[in-house]
Amino acid sequence: MTPRAKYSTLLLGVLLVGIIVTSVALPMASAQERKNYFAAAYPYLVPPQGHFNTFVTNAITLGIYWDLMEMPLGMYIWHNSSWIKLLATDWKFDKSTMTFTVHLRKGVVWNDGTPFTSKDVKCTWLILYMMGHALFNYVDPKRIETPDDYTVVFHITSPVSPIILERYVIRTNVRAYKTYHEYCDKVEELLKQGKDRKSEEMQKLLQEFNKFRPKEMLVTGPYMIDVPSITDSELWLKKNPKSYFAKYAKFDWIRVYNGETPVITPLVLAKKVDYATHGFPVATEKQFRKIGIKILRPPTYFGPAIYFNYKHKEYGELFSKKEFRKAIAYAINKTETGFVSLGLSGKPVKYFTGVPELITLNWMKPEDLKKLEDYSYNPKKAEELLKSIGLEKKGGVWYWKGKPLELELMYPAEYADWAATAQNVASQLTKFGIKVTLRAVTFTQEPIEIQNGRFVMAIQFWGTGHPHPFMSYDSVFNMYNQKEYLGTGLIGMGLPMIWDTKYGKVNATKLLIDMGKSFDIEKQKEAFAKMALAFNDFLPIIPLWERLGNNPVLEGVRACGWLPFEDPLYKNSVYTDNFVVIMILKGLSLIHISSPRDLSTSRMP
Predict the structure, then answer these.
(1) Are 253 and 37 in contact (CB under 8 A)?
(2) DSSP sequence for 283-327
(3) What is the per-residue pLDDT for 232?
(4) Structure letter (DSSP) for residue 261
(5) β-pairing, 545-547 with 346-348?
(6) Which is nearest to 328 in space by CA: 346, 353, 307, 349?
(7) pLDDT class for 514, splitting at 50, 70, 90?
(8) From the centroid of its chain, how far is CA 602?
(9) Residues 6+ apart with CB under 8 A from 398
(10) Per-residue model confidence (pLDDT) at position 590
């Protein structure tokens, strides 16, 4: 597939670079004499808790900057549905042979000099099979073929949306066979023995793999972690001269400050950070603008939601009643919650489908949209629903089974926007008559608490930055409802996937898989409509608001040549196809202020 993106504004960005005032002072060299660097910010855990097994929790992947290290085969351009080709040069879906064939870029090596080949791609996917990746609802793990070093053939077991297939295969970060061969070879051997991922042998191997800690991260990208530089406060990515893409990236170093919003805020105010993706509070954003830092509001295609513990010993029975969940949704003014949390970047949810608004509109017919319950703030309706399932209100307090209703809401402490959301939700529900106490948990631990069922209610994500609606659902249930959704794994929410809705009983897992089991986009849309309507009525989690980024952008201190904010590249998802990463990779616009201005011979094709 040839990318169709025509970046006229990228060319404009190059021209702008050429006329930037050259009298801007160069940054002071760091203590380590590192120059020509881009200053980023992303949270990570230091070793030994932080590690280099990038398949499992607490890996030092650095979020969006992972794509500059263990690169994917390509990155997606949202505004015109095209691709930037990275480790792959082309790929083809063949309906007649039920195959998806990828041709890899020749001449790419890992930073230790080992050639990048089809073995790396196959190894990556064998491990992801062991971990329960959704691709294998449609692809045979025993038939990932590597006919030569630069060809990978995936054999499809059932009709599948080409969008899902392409998105998963091309967008996944590829790891080194040299690092993980012991495990992917064992997975392949177990598959030959007829053992699948649910087998005792495979599950035992997975438990061992989760404890595997490589000494380093081998990379194909233009940057690699400078391991000695890792501290509690920062680490540095250094240029990988062996990377095929090194000649395109214009920064010699990327400095990554460690921390969530409270830690990074003063660094942004001090103009030590060129770009950050954190959720900055409204007052902080005003401070940024006041000192000349621009604010970019790109889509993230996700937001915070309320999760319930359906197996909770005291409240699981109540949470399992959809009338209760609906009452909670009606009792919260979600427009208020979004605004106090993130200002203009806290976008109210319009369609409660569990899928971001733009994707819902692209995939759902107008007549089906009209069937959706909107859950606008309506405390009177909330009261009616609670009374319908036997709750009583006495003295302004709701009682269930003769006891006042007192719930706990867990949230990630360092996420300033989600912390504000939790506080607002607790305040609103307490005023409504349901006492809610807050439990702040560090952002790295909160997902683990949910996965292990150690919570009452929690704030976590809904939606995801992927273009097919299947992925928004799969990301939630795969992460936080493994046992019920996958048949193995952690208990998470303990949410049964057979839902009793006004449309009848539905098998949500089957609906989800069926959403991708068709070559015909219209049939996929029909399956999505069924799932969206079921989600909307059953409301397994409660989406609160959809997040737009409020990303601070600093120009002229270290980096220059930012594209105009109206450029369509900024329609890319912040966290899954980040535009800054693409600008750095392409070497087309964003550069250090001391870099040569003539980029005509060093742009990525």
Answers:
(1) yes
(2) HHHHHHHHTT-EEE--B-SEEEEEEE-TT-TTTHHHHT-HHHHHH
(3) 97
(4) H
(5) antiparallel
(6) 307
(7) confident
(8) 31
(9) 386, 391, 392, 404, 405, 432, 433, 434
(10) 64
Cα 566 off chain centre by: 24
Helical ranges in 389-520 per DSSP H: 416-432, 446-451, 469-480, 482-486, 508-516
pLDDT at 86: 97
Average pLDDT for residues 30-53, to the nearest whole number? 89
8 A C-beta contact, residue 604 and residue 89: no
Give the dihedral of Cα atoms 278, 283, 288, 290; nearest 10 deg: 170
Structure tokens at 288: 């940024």
Reading the block at residue 351, the tokens are 């369609």
What interhelical angle do 469-480 and 162-171 show, nearest 10?
60
Whether 12 shows a pLDDT value over 50: the answer reads no
Q: Let me know the angle formed at the C-alpha of 454 by 448 and 456, rounded to the nearest 5 degrees.
A: 120
pLDDT of 340 higher than 60: yes
Residue found by looking up tokens 């059932």 in the block: 158
Average pLDDT, the chain: 91
Cis? peptide before 543, omega within 30° of 0: no
Judge whether 29 and 35 are in contact, CB under 8 Å: yes
State both tokens at 225. Answer: 């972690």
pLDDT tops 60 at residue 533: yes
Between CA 124 and CA 116 the distance in angstroms is: 12
- Identify the CA nearest to 534 among candidates 559, 498, 564: 498
- What is the model's pLDDT at position 591? 62
Reported as type and span, the H/E element at residue 559 is: strand 559-560
Integer Cα distance of 511 and 524 in angstroms:
10
User: DSSP states of 350-414 as a string?
Assistant: ---SSS-HHHHHHHS-HHHHTTS----S-HHHHHHHHHHTT-EEETTEEEETTEE-EEEEEEETT
* Torsional sign, CA 81, 346, 374, 536: positive
In the predicted structure, residue 97 carries a pLDDT above the cut 70:
yes
Q: Averaged over 490-497, what is the pLDDT? A: 97
d(CA 287, CA 305): 28
Q: Looking at the chain, how many residues does it have?
A: 605
Q: Which of 30, 65, 34, 14 is nearest to 560 (CA)?
A: 14
Say which residue the tokens 């990301």 belong to.
475
Strand 406-412 and strand 403-404: the pairing is unpaired
Virtual torsion, Cα 172, 177, 181, 187, nearest 10 deg: 30
Retrieve residue 506's tokens: 């539905």
| Neighbour-count burial for 495-514, b at 16+ CB within 10 Å, e otherwise | bebebebeeeebebbebbbb
Judge whether residue 598 has pLDDT over 50. Answer: no
How far apart are the C-alpha atoms of 334 and 356, rounded to whole Å? 15
